[in-house]
Hints:
This is Tetraspanin. By secondary structure, the protein is an all-alpha fold. It contains 9 helices and 2 strands, in the order H-H-H-H-H-H-E-H-E-H-H. Strands 1-2 form a two-stranded antiparallel ribbon. 17% of the residues are buried.
Amino acid sequence: MLTDPTFMLSMTQSYNHYHIALYVFLGIGILITLGAFFGCWGVCRESQCLLVSFFCVILIVMVAQIAAGAWAFHNKDKLDDIVRAAVKSSVQEEYGQSTMSSRTVTFDTLQKNLKCCGADGPGDWATSRFNNVDRTNIVEIAVSSMNVFYNIPESCCKEDLKDNECELSRRLKFGGPLNTAIYQQGCVDKMIEIIYENWVSIFAITIAVILLELLSLTFALSLCCAVRNQHYKD
């Protein structure tokens, strides 16, 4: 997984693969919870076995975090394409579909909070299923999209618009000028911009978490040694 640059791309190419990511995060959460239980119960019981288990769990989590960071740094040039492909797939294939209502709500929230529209911009909606476009034939899409109007979601409208101003602004002409009442920037560029603007905070939080984990490992090892010495004295 860490050496194959196409692994994460393949993870985003199918709706079912999103469940894999959810299960991975769920597994990590269970592992951390289990480690916390081992640590607390090990301290209360002064159990070497539980303290060693806590040490191992935290060590595994920390190594996984470092490995994930190393993979992201090694493939940072490809991450932009991976994220862009995933977001564009949500816009053109999934948004507005009755079987993916949760994805629609999520993307609406993303556009409203980030003040963005589409993956690369509002033009992405011209060839999306949201406008009842059949995406099985890309050539027909390109031809049929010329000189026609298309709609964009309400979440692309800027805040505090007058009555019906959003409704009128949501209908755009393919290749025509964009209405100033809607967000012009794509969500992928907006997300990358936010990451770059806050990279110092993200880096500081990451370092703080790793230091906290190192501190936990040190305390667990020290307490384990103290318990062993106490048993020897007894």
